[in-house]
Amino acid sequence: MVARYVSLCVLLLxxxxxxxxxxxxxxxxxxxxxxxxxxxxxxxxxYTAYREADEHDQMLVVYLTSPSxxxxxESVETYLQSNAPAREKxxxxxxxxxxxxxxxxxxxKPRRLADFAALSELRGGAGFAIxxxxxxxxxxxxxAVTALPFAGGKYYHWSPRGLATALDLPAGTLTQxxxxxxxxxxPEAPQSTGGRFHNALASGxxxxxxxxxxxxxxxxxxxxxxxxxxxxxxxxxxTEVCAESxxxxxxxxxxxxxxxxxRHSSGHWRGVxxxxxxxxxxxxxxxxxxxxxxxxxxx
Length: 299
Prior knowledge:
This protein is an alpha+beta fold. 38% of the residues lie in helices and 22% in strands. The strands form four sheets. Strands 4-3-7-8 form a four-stranded mixed beta sheet, with helices on both faces. 43% of the residues are buried.
């Protein structure tokens, strides 16, 4: 059983959208401990936390801390103490709290947890990541599906509300959930994500986002051909929105940027802002460093 869990643990370390390859880590710890923070119990040992999340089919919340972000951490924990719904949602997940410089053994050598590709969207610093160990049959099982760094960017900014929003996202990949998160975080509270996150539409959104990234051009290419297939899968006519980021941005900057781009187009914003029976979002990065977003809606 130990070998099985060690092999499962490596998924967190290497699970990215590009499926980077790494050598499996070797379990060296025999005891684990916990800490109390924000009225919740957090594991401090990565392997123990991963094993528990896997055994209970739960999301694994990774909370990386740093001496340089003490004030932010205090605000997070104060927020959670006063926000019962967020605290209750976290209580349904497996929690890991570790210093950003925590290392684990990989092939007999220490590796800094924050530096693994799976946590790349935290950019080597403190923040929160969520790993999906609840949906065993999904392609994103064992992958990081949320990343909320404390360090802000050009468009993305950390907030405790952002964490609370991330705890209630539909099951999906990191790119899908991040774009849904950005829609829900918009100050005008657009309503397009209030319906059902539709798997067939999610596949279609991924397909079109990836196509735009491949040809390095924003657009609704081949929508006429895709319309019949997507409408049949969704049970009604579908509509689509697309956007692109500026070059060289992080994922989190890009999802916020793309939602803002939709806000400045009345036609696109009608789709994003109004409620729908079913929806999906996804975003993919092209070789030119630009992220291309797609949203699909059915009523």
